[in-house]
Write a structure and sequence with these properties.
73% of the residues lie in helices and 3% in strands. By secondary structure, it is mainly alpha-helical. It has a two-stranded antiparallel ribbon.
Length: 238
């Protein structure tokens, strides 16, 4: 990871300079030895990210420009995800509602994309998770894990890696998903009718209906949070 960061920093410096540069110049800008910089430059050249301009130094290729742009965008997405996780770490009722608004946008998209990108095997697996979830509820067992698995499975089926990672980080950090689930514990059997239409829409590969039913489900959770007056006294550590 450190080597990859050094590589990106070198590419950034070459791009910002706007002219061909070599290891000796980069050494004055980046806290690395000239030998280390030279090895990274050689590797980047082999990968097609840089090209030599006579004896003046190296410049970014078109592939290098694309690689650097994608790397910066990826780093920004991870930074944003980290900020969101920090935001929900000490979630109160108001914060959960704000995070839920983000979930509505993300999970509606994953439900729609799952209809397009999921394999038949993945859809059968999702159906099995839903059956396990329904069994847990009907037999008075804890159901948070199955519910979490259901939502994350849909996100993974969408093949949208960025959204999946963000949702996974949000919902699995500091028992955040349990916080969402606890507020609707008294209405847990009412959750089943909200999950079935989502499952049916994905099985039928109906993207519009899948997004709509997911939004309805999230809006139901939001309304439940509004209805629960004793929220702040719930012990999330149990």
């Amino acid at each position: 990871m450190l080597l990859e960061n050094d590589k990106i920093n070198i590419l950034k410096e070459i791009k910002s300079n706007g002219l061909p540069v070599g290891a000796s110049y980069l050494k004055t800008k980046i806290g690395l030895s000239q030998a280390t910089i030279g090895r990274i430059l050689l590797d980047c050249e082999k990968e097609g990210l840089l090209e030599k301009v006579s004896n003046k130094g190296r410049v970014l290729t078109e592939l290098g420009e694309t690689f650097l742009r994608n790397s910066i965008q990826h780093a920004e997405k991870l930074k944003s995800a980290g900020k969101l996780i920090d935001f929900v770490a000490d979630a109160d009722q108001h914060t959960l509602k704000e995070v839920l608004e983000v979930r509505i946008l993300l999970e509606a998209k994953t439900a729609a994309e799952a209809c397009i990108n999921a394999t038949d095997e993945e859809i059968r697996n999702l159906e099995n998770i839903l059956f396990e979830y329904m069994y847990a509820i009907n037999h008075g067992q804890l159901w948070y894990e199955q519910d979490l698995m259901f939502h994350l499975a849909i996100a993974k089926m969408s093949k949208n890696t960025t959204i999946y990672r963000i949702l996974n980080l949000i919902l699995t950090s500091n028992n955040e998903y349990q916080k969402f689930a606890i507020v609707s514990t008294q209405k847990e059997k009412m959750q089943i009718p909200w999950h079935m239409p989502i499952m049916d829409a994905i099985k039928q590969r109906n993207s519009d209906e899948a997004a709509k039913t997911m939004i309805n489900h999230m809006e139901h959770i939001k309304q439940t949070i509004n209805d629960v007056q004793s929220y702040t006294s719930v012990d999330y550590t149990r």
